[in-house]
Design goal:
Layout lengths: L2 E2 L13 H20 L4 H4 L10 H20 L29 H20 L18 H27 L1 E2 L2
Parallel strand pairs: 1-2
Helix pairs in contact: 1-5, 3-4, 3-5
Amino acid sequence: MVTFVEPPAEPPVHLTDPRALVTGYLDFYRDALLRKLDGLTDEQLRTSRVPSGWTPLELLKHLTYVEIRWLQWAFLGDEVPEPFGDRGPGGRREAAWRVLPEETLDDLRTAFLSTVETSRGIVAAAALEDRQRAHFEDEPPTLAWILFHLLQEYARHVGQLDVVRELTDGVTGE
């Protein structure tokens, strides 16, 4: 049985300010991510439904670390103990996403929401033309580029999670 969940409203259609559009859509997808996890059992959150093997909890942790890597570690150049902490010990970039058995949805949701608040503060304090400060060998990207990169990352992964959720329990929606 397919159950449709009504999505929240997208940013207003009259927006023309690039900052308001990209941050509005980032928040839209951040909310969609959390809504798609609501109602899943712990077993469903920890079970993969796709050949690549990722689980919904691993996706939540991954998107938390995507924000940490791009905005705290790279854009600001902050010291981050494990910028690839979603990849397990040592943070090998090629390693699969990883959630420890003791990590719960509440723990990962709390970390995600805290990271999102930090990200919002970083974005609010910078100009879209500002450039990344660390971990880029060639021409460093602008904050505008980073925000669009984050937006596409969310859109892609939330779309994947939509399919996983439908396969798991029939729930669909934006």
